[in-house]
Each structure stands twice: as structure tokens, then as C-alpha cells.
Amino acid sequence: MKFSFVNPGPNETRLEGENMMSAACPPLGILYLASTLKTVGIEVSVLDHAAKGISIKEVTDWIIKEDPDVLGLSVLVTSSLTAPRIAEEVKKRNSDIIIVFGNHHATFNAERILKKYPYVDVIVRGEGEQTCFELADRLKENRGINDVLGITFRHNGKVVSNPDRPLMKDIDMLPFPQRDLLDIEYHNTTVGINVAPKKFTTFLSSRGCIFSCRFCSCTSIAKNCWRARSVENIIDELHLLASEGYKQILFVDDNFTLNQMRVIDLCRRIRKEKKR
Predict the structure, then answer these.
(1) What is the reported pLDDT for 191?
(2) pLDDT tens digits, residue range 87-112?
(3) Which residues of 68-101 are buried (b: 16+ CB within 10 A; e: fewer)?
(4) Is 258 in contact with 222 (CB distance < 8 Å)?
(5) C-alpha separations of 122 from 47, 148, 191, 254 in Å
(6) Could you tell me the pTM of the whole model?
(7) What percentage of the chain exceeds 90 in pLDDT?
(8) What is the structure's pLDDT at 276?
(9) Is residue 172 within 8 Å of 219, Cβ to Cβ?
(10) What is the pLDDT of residue 220?
């Protein structure tokens, strides 16, 4: 069993000479999924189309060469047109590959996507680690997926949405994202400012948020629930990143400062570790 994951590039056409890498960040969601599957012996590969700046054909060529059983595409509004184009081209060349969409746009438009795009097979809604693990297990054993929580799929010609999967409570149980699955050293320039000239990566120390801001999809994805990693777990990953040569880290929590004492404890621990 093999999974390949692609982080699709943006829908809009780039200006000539524009560098897609300029504001790119490692796709942590995909890396969490890939790392989770690797812990149970499933082969994985990852391509960040958004950072590579390659063509749809080159993405498709990479997928066909990888020859996965399952292709996962992380779909946001910004890539909502690119992802279906990739899926369609892949199905033309290998109809046996099971194509799965996930992430925020796919979660909120699951039934519409399956009705509009016949070459998309499954939508994984919400947080995907446990769902992908169960989906892989069923597909590997050639068993049905009719009772897998958190997915929308076709059954007997109809689109079916299974109940949501409960959120994982202890996110310390997740493996650290295996960033070396990406053959890219990220640097970040945003609105003309070189915010990360050294080797950098993004980092999640918690998930979710308790508030209900109308402009934010986190309310629906995380169901107004905030879950924090332990300081010890965070420090362990920071040590790993330091050993891998990372110099700059951007925390991308939905609400990093919700528990202010936790932030203070973490900052004190980081300073203490630095002195060792």
C-alpha cells in the first residue's frame, strides 16, 4: 500500500518570473498525515506543488512515476481549481489510483465536489490522521469503507456522508511531522520582507480555538475545541528541529496564546534549554 500526497499550487496564473516559493510554508497537515501512515509501515511520498512552481503536467508525471494506490490532495479555496485539474489528469493516465481530497475547502464542500468531479473518489473531512489510517487499513485489506467516520464517498451511484469523526483528544500521540519527506529548503519572503532568510519551518503547538469568529473556518473544523501539546512534547520536537539544522520557526497555531500561562511556561523552558 502506497500513499502519495500533493499540496496543489494556487488557482491563479503566476506572473512571468514570479517565484511561488516566496511565501511558501511546509504543508504541515500533509506531513502529519504522511508521518502517521509511515508509523504503520505504509509507504508515502509528498510533493509540494505550491512551492515547486511546476506545471500540472509535471505534477501528474510525478504522481504516475510514484504509482501510488491512493493520491491525497490538500484542497483550500486557493487551490480549489488546481486540485481537480490534477485529479482529472491523473485519472486519465491511471484510473486505478484512488483520489482523495482533504483540508478545509474539501471538508465544507464534500458533496458538491463529488457531484461535480467524477474523478474524485473520497473526501476526508476535518482532521485526517485517524481517518486516513483507517481508510488505508480498509483499502489494504480490500474491505469496504462504508462505516469509516469522517468521509464522504459514492455508494451505488449516490453520494454518502458518514458521521463526523470525533476529534483526537491527546495530540501528543501524533508523530512529529517528517519534514525530510519534502526535498525543499523553505525560505519565506512575505510582502517584500525577508522574514525567514535562514532555514525555517512552521510548527504547531496546539490545535483549534474556543471562539466563534464568523470569518474563521476553525470554528467548524475544531468544533470550538482547543487542544494543546504538552511543553515536554513541544521541546522534544524543537530539539529534533535544531538537530536537523533549522534556525527559524514560525508557530502557526489557530490560537497560540489562549492559555497565557502555557505560553509563559513554554518560553521559560525554551530559554532554559538554550542555556544547556
Answers:
(1) 67
(2) 999 999 999 999 999 999 999 999 99
(3) bbbbbbbbbeebbebbbbbbbbbbeeeeebbbbb
(4) no
(5) 20, 11, 36, 26
(6) 0.92
(7) 75
(8) 66
(9) no
(10) 86
Distance CA 23, CA 157 (A): 41
Q: Report phi then psi at 135, rounded to 5.
A: -60, -45
CATH class for domain 198-274?
A: alpha beta
d(CA 246, CA 183): 14
φ/ψ of residue 190, rounded to 5: -120, 130
Which candidate, 119, 78, 121, 100, places its Cα nearest to that of 34?
A: 100
Q: What is the tens place of the pLDDT at every residue in 200-259?
A: 899 999 999 999 898 888 888 989 999 999 999 999 999 999 999 999 898 999 999 999
Per-residue cell: 8: 496543489
Residue type, 217: S
For the chain, what are the domain ranges? 2-161, 198-274
3.10.450.350, 3.20.20.70, 3.40.50.280, 3.30.470.30: CATH of 2-161: 3.40.50.280
What is the rounded average pLDDT of the residues 49-54?
Answer: 87
Question: What would the grid cell of residue 204 be?
Answer: 504547531
Compute the Cα dihedral for 255, 257, 185, 2 and give only its sign: negative
99: amino acid identity, one letter: I
Cell (9 digits) for 265: 511556561
How many whole angstroms separate alpha carbon 249 and alpha carbon 241?
9
Residue 262: strand, helix, or coil = helix
Angle between helices 82-93 and 56-66 (to 10 degrees): 50
Number of helices (H) and strands (E), helices first, in the chain? 10, 13
Does residue 23 register a pLDDT over 80?
A: no
Q: Which amino acid is at 174?
A: L
